[in-house]
Structures are given as structure tokens and as C-alpha cells.
Design a protein that fits this description.
Belongs to the cyclic nucleotide phosphodiesterase class-III family. The structure is a single chain. With 281 residues, the protein is of the alpha/beta class. It has a single domain, classed as Purple Acid Phosphatase, chain A, domain 2, CATH 3.60.21.10. 23% of the residues lie in helices and 28% in strands. The strands form two sheets. Strands 1, 2, 3, 10, 11, 12 and 13 form a seven-stranded mixed sheet that branches. Strand 8 and strand 9 form a beta hairpin. The protein starts with a strand and ends with a helix. The relative contact order is 0.17.
Length: 281
């Protein structure tokens, strides 16, 4: 197997028709997304695929997803690279099914695709419209069955909410709330990397010898160094993922825009995991 290059774009937060950009962004998120696609053309090795890991439209309608589908179809044709999408907590599942897929709405949107001998799992970590992520038992069972059946094949997982790790100690209130369950399922296969977004800053860490890569947002950066107050600023970034012939994972964070002006402050209460019993109600 030759090295495989994958582009991960996350948290694009495109504005619904007639709405202002979310979180006081100064630059239109559609312009920012175009900056990313223009930059992808500069990558020397053609990516195997591009994946958008959630928060596609910021609480939009079916018509907004129709527009997104048209944009991505055009980009696929221009670049000659397949584009995959998954959902985030600011997406609206019913509107996505009706507008983007033009199908009858389902509760969850997850699937598997194989590229160059590598199984790629695109998961749905949304839990209603709340901020936190959660993977239900049905989806975990589906993932486990697929991993068991393909234990010798390398696998990558893409989802919106990251698993809590060393660099996300104070982000547990917002990330995947049952990450331990996912890691346990991953032991049934040959998972090399888990890639997510959601937190709007780039970080990399390992969990049970699995590389976890979290992508910067294309819409806005969130500075979470102060655990009680998070600061929002305009930024554009994305990840370039490499899976080597030896199945080693490398991640490059590509920054295209960085504005230090704070456009919004977010007050944070408790920083630990939420009560799962309350979450499941």
C-alpha cells in the first residue's frame, strides 16, 4: 500500500439563508470554506477523499442543505476527489436528510466506505440538539460487528465529538460522553486513528495506542486555555492526514487565517463529564 492522504475539514458552520454568521464571525463562513478548497489544490499528493466532520450548517433548514449539497458536488467535480460528510450537534438531522440526501429522515446518519484497502467509519455522535456527544448502542453494535468481520484491515474512524484525552482534560463537559465504550469496541478491530472536531482548536493525543486527531474549525477558533472563559476569534484551518504504508498516522494542521481579535466570550461552568442518566432522558 502507498501512503494515503486524507483531508479533514470540520465545523464549517455555514449560515442559514438570511442569518448572520454564528458566534459574531467577521468573515462569511462560505468565503472561509472556499479558502480551504482553494488551498487543497496545492497539496502535491492527491487526497484519497475529503471529509467534513460535522457542524455543516449552523441550525439550518432543508434548503440550506440543498445549497451545501450543490456546493460540495461542484467541488468534487473540480477537484476529482470524493467528499464525505457527517453530522454535528449544530446540524439538524431531519433537514439534512430532506435537503442534502433527499431521503426520508432517519434518527442517525452513519456509514462505512473503503478506500485503497482501508475501512473508514463515519459515525454519528449527535444526541438530539444538545452540545455533548453520545454514541448509541445500535451504532456501537454495528461498528463492532464490522470490525470483527474485518480484523485484518486497517480502519479509521471519523466523527464530530472527540474522545476525552490528555489535552482535553477540561473539555469533558462537551466531548463524547461514552468514549470508553467506543475504545472498548475498537479493540475488536485494527483501528489506527480517530478523527473529530467540535472543540474548534487542533490537538493530537493517543488513547489506548490509537491516534486521536482533532481539527481546527474553518469558521472560528475557540481559545480554551482559560478553563472558565473561552474566547472566540475568526480563524480558518483544516487537517491533512497521512496513513503510511506501515499504517502510521501523521497529522498536519494547515492554518489559513488567524485573527487575534476576540469576537465573543463563553462562560464555562463545570468542566467534567455530564450525568449520563440525565443525558439519556
Amino acid at each position: 500500500m502507498n501512503d494515503i492522504t486524507i483531508v479533514q475539514i470540520s465545523d464549517i458552520h455555514l449560515s442559514p439563508a438570511g442569518k448572520q454568521p454564528s458566534f459574531n464571525q467577521k468573515l462569511d463562513p462560505y468565503v472561509k470554506l472556499n479558502m480551504v478548497f482553494d488551498d487543497i489544490r496545492k497539496i502535491a499528493v492527491k487526497p484519497e477523499f475529503i471529509v467534513l466532520t460535522g457542524d455543516l450548517i449552523h441550525e439550518g433548514t432543508a434548503n440550506d442543505y440543498v445549497r451545501l449539497q450543490e456546493i460540495l458536488k461542484e467541488k468534487e467535480q473540480q477537484l476529482g476527489i470524493p467528499i464525505q460528510v457527517i453530522l454535528g450537534n449544530h446540524d439538524r438531522t431531519e433537514a439534512f436528510y430532506e435537503g442534502f440526501l433527499q431521503e426520508e429522515p432517519q434518527d442517525k446518519y452513519y456509514y462505512k466506505k473503503t478506500f485503497s484497502g482501508v475501512d473508514n467509519y463515519f459515525l454519528d455522535t449527535t444526541f438530539g440538539n444538545i452540545e455533548q456527544g453520545y454514541i448509541d448502542e445500535k451504532q456501537l453494535t454495528w461498528l463492532k460487528e464490522n470490525l470483527v468481520q474485518n480484523q485484518d484491515k486497517p480502519a479509521l474512524i471519523f466523527m464530530h465529538h472527540p474522545i476525552a484525552g490528555a489535552s482535553l482534560r477540561y473539555m469533558r463537559f462537551s466531548v463524547l460522553q461514552n468514549g470508553d465504550d467506543l475504545i472498548e469496541v475498537c479493540k475488536n478491530g485494527n483501528v489506527k486513528g480517530i478523527f473529530a472536531g467540535h472543540i474548534h482548536f487542533a490537538t493530537t493525543y493517543t488513547t489506548e495506542n490509537i491516534v486521536n486527531g482533532v481539527a481546527e474549525s474553518t469558521a472560528y477558533h475557540i481559545d480554551c486555555r482559560n478553563h472558565k472563559i473561552h474566547y472566540v476569534s475568526d480563524a480558518v484551518g483544516y487537517n491533512i492526514i497521512t496513513l503510511s504504508a506501515a499504517y502510521e498516522v501523521g497529522i498536519e494542521n494547515q492554518m489559513l487565517l488567524w485573527n487575534s481579535e476576540v469576537v465573543k466570550e463563553i462562560s464555562i461552568g463545570q468542566t467534567d463529564f455530564v450525568n449520563l442518566k440525565e443525558l439519556k432522558k
